[in-house]
Amino acid sequence: MEPYVKSTISGKIAEIEFFHPAGNSLPSNMLAELTTSFEQIAQHSDINVIILKSGGEKAFCGGANFDELIQIENIEQGRQFFSGFANLINAIRKAPQIVIGRIHGKTVGGGIGLACACDYTIGSVQAQLKLSELAVGIGPFVVGPAIERKAGISAFAEMALEPAVWKPAEWAYQKGIFQYLAKDILELNNKTEALAFQLTEYNPDALRELKKIFWQNAQHWDALLTQRAEISGQLVLGEFVKSFIQKFKKK
Predict the structure, then answer these.
(1) Is residue 212 in some structural domain?
(2) What CATH number does residue 157 fall under?
(3) Dihedral of CA 131/227/97/65: which sign?
(4) Cα–Cα nearest to 4, from 54, 57, 68, 69
């Protein structure tokens, strides 16, 4: 299948879905498309809920696309590359609608940031999480604030300092990354649809005010996540990362 980003609207519910054959990793152009999708739907006052999901049956999101990472040659390219997830997380944050995340499988790096940026995240027991950035020679700087907001600094540090360790879905549920843990895909789908429909029956003004409260301490994230992207953009040019990339190319 070819990569895609698609949006659909049914009544008061919008659904944004992405897919990439390389483990649902997200290249810059798809991150930009996702950001635009959220920004456009944010303008629809008649929509109460946005569901974020990915296609396929395996990974929910493999993080940033590694083929692009190995092509970065200067700080500006690095900043732009790492700003992709920053822009998307901020678009999710700023959308006045409640965003539900549907996490069906393995989730890496930036994908965890997306799961944590959602206002209500539903995970399947098949889901596993890993922050692999430190192993590459950088760090989960851009997604850090989103993870800290939901799971706390302790859980973020645990994942960040164990970049080779997959965290099971039950761990993610206990830490607050997932607000609901589904026993299988059928329950995952049913819970996502039922919650979205239930939210359409509530006062949209009340939902929007709740969204503001959920994010009341994040107004500075435009600047913060840009600064974090610059940190990664600088580190990616260092010898450690270059050595990692050379080893990766030889595989």
Answers:
(1) no
(2) 3.90.226.10
(3) negative
(4) 54
